[in-house]
């Protein structure tokens, strides 16, 4: 069963930020996050680059 599972490819950088923004949008659609929140801004705040000084 595990042999048939696809490889896990971690998402990083801007692709990760885009994915977090999509999650925020989906949470807004089902009413778990206020519609007033900007998904892109939240994703940017939640995914800080810790290596950038």
How would you describe the overall organization of this protein?
This protein has 53 residues and is mainly alpha-helical. It has a domain at 11-46. The protein has two helices and no strands. It has helices spanning 13-29, 39-46. Helix 1 crosses helix 2 (39-46). It starts with 12 loop residues before the first helix and ends in a 7-residue tail after the last helix. The mean pLDDT is 86.
What sort of overall outline do the alpha carbons produce when their principal axes are compared? flat
Quick check: average pLDDT?
86
**What is the number of helical segments per DSSP (H or I, 4+ residues)?**
2
Low-confidence parts:
none
Structural class label: mainly alpha
Proportion of residues in β-strands = under 5%
Biggest beta-sheet profile: none
Helices and strands, in order, run as HH
Helix coverage percent of residues? 40-55%
Gap between N and C termini: 44 Å
Rg value = 14 Å
Number of strands: 0
Keywords:
mainly alpha; 2 helices
